[in-house]
Fold:
Amino acid sequence: MKVDVSDDELRACHKVIIPDCDLFEFCQSYREAVATPSIQDEGPRSVLKQIVGMEEMRTLAIALARVIEAKPHSADVERLISKYNILKSPARSRLNTDTLHYYIFIGFNLPPLASYDARPAVRILFNR
Structure:
């Protein structure tokens, strides 16, 4: 793990890898981990093994697990690139980066609309 990481680098890493978790917790757990002598010169897998049970390092453990699990040459990545190319057409060239991210996230992680059952949501909405 790199000891001299700037706040901007941690913020960028958080935005890409673990945006669903708290930024402060992620930065704090990273700073604590690199301050630990036994962790400083280790790779992601061995760091994860050391911190996996520690509650104060939970956010960092999630981030490391995501990095380790990423498969750069898998069909998932190919589908993601294909969806990006479909979305980023000349007609949509002015799409905001965040909007593009949300479109891809929804298209890649959620079920197709045809298989969505709205009944549970409607029951919750009207049972209030």
In short: Residues 23-35 form the longest helix (13 residues).
